[in-house]
Specification:
Elements lengths: L2 H10 L10 H14 L2 E2 L13 H10 L6 H15 L2 E9 L11 E10 L2 E5 L11 E2 L5 E3 L5 E6 L8 E6 L16 E6 L6 H13 L4 H4 L2 E6 L2 E6 L2 E6 L2 E6 L3 H12 L5 H6 L1 H4 L4
Antiparallel strand pairs: 1-10, 2-3, 2-9, 3-4, 4-5, 6-7, 7-8, 8-9, 10-11, 11-12, 12-13
Helix pairs in contact: 3-4
């Protein structure tokens, strides 16, 4: 990893100095990343596909100042953690937010297992449906986030390498609509500590980007952690949660939608690309 790339990344996320390779530095880097780089899937409806090698991800998220989804976000975040001296590796997770207890979804989310001063922590800069703070890999570890939610880890079976569950309790609005309306604990995603190879990530990314009828191949999605809440755009609907209050907006034309995409999420798309999205083609807008 070149010092030039690290410097460009730090500028992208608004940090003037390189964080120390400790727990505070991990939290600082992850929070700045999520405040600056939006979660989005727009290259899928634009027909471009998703590449998750380090060069492609750096070019898109840093040089082009776009966003991306988990396989892109956490590839970049992993590379930059390594650049500041924090060892980490990927883990694959089953997203359970909003699903029934009997659901068994595929492993379509990637997070990171980081080791800081000999302590293992999960780190995740790429979950679109709420902000996930770094947490010690410890049964019962908890953290609060500015969107009004709490998160905790639970160990589901014996042994360190068994299955873990990340849970969330808090308002529904900052979950991009997937969370249940009650504020009690509900599952966000589950994972184990098994080794994950690059080919595993490529396979999961391909499924996520191409499987017909799924969230990422049928919807237009963008989200961003805010200093005081969360912003989520799903198709024409925008949810803005700030200081515990939620505002909803609906967009009736591509110009207003494109304006919000730039103003709130920092994503700049050409007018002709936005107008060609199925959001507007199907409706005749």
């Amino acid at each position: 990893m070149s010092t030039h790339r690290l410097a460009a990344y730090l500028e992208r996320i608004g940090l003037a100095e390189t964080p120390a390779p400790d727990a505070e530095g991990l939290a600082t880097l992850q929070r700045a990343h999520r405040l600056a780089i939006p979660f989005e899937n727009l290259d899928i409806p634009l027909g471009r596909g998703i590449r998750i090698d380090s060069d492609s991800v750096f070019d898109k998220l840093v040089a082009q100042r776009r966003g991306g989804y988990c396989f892109e976000q956490n590839r970049l975040f992993s590379d930059m953690l390594g650049a500041i001296g924090i060892a980490n590796r990927p883990l694959l997770a089953r997203v359970r937010l909003g699903l029934g207890s009997d659901a068994h979804p595929p492993r379509t989310h990637v997070l990171l297992l980081a080791e800081v001063s000999g302590v293992l922590r999960i780190a995740d800069a790429g979950f679109g449906g709420s902000y996930v703070p770094p947490l010690k890999l410890k049964d019962g570890a908890e953290a609060e986030t500015p969107d009004g939610a709490r998160h905790r880890l639970r160990k589901l079976d014996g042994g360190l390498a068994g299955e873990w569950l990340l849970e969330r309790a808090g308002p529904q609005a900052p979950t991009d609509g997937r969370g249940k309306p009650h504020r009690d604990w509900q599952p966000q995603y589950s994972f184990d500590l098994g080794e994950v190879a690059q080919d595993d990530l490529e396979q999961a990314n391909h499924w996520t980007a191409t499987r017909p009828g799924t969230r990422f191949t049928t919807l237009h999605i963008a989200s961003l952690a805010l200093a005081d809440g969360f912003a989520a755009l799903t198709d024409r609907s925008l949810s803005l949660t700030r200081n515990g209050s939620n505002e909803m907006r609906e967009f009736a034309d591509p110009a207003a939608w494109r304006g919000a995409l730039g103003e709130i999420f920092g994503i700049s798309l050409p007018e002709q690309e936005v107008a060609a999205l199925s959001l507007w083609v199907q409706s005749g807008g």
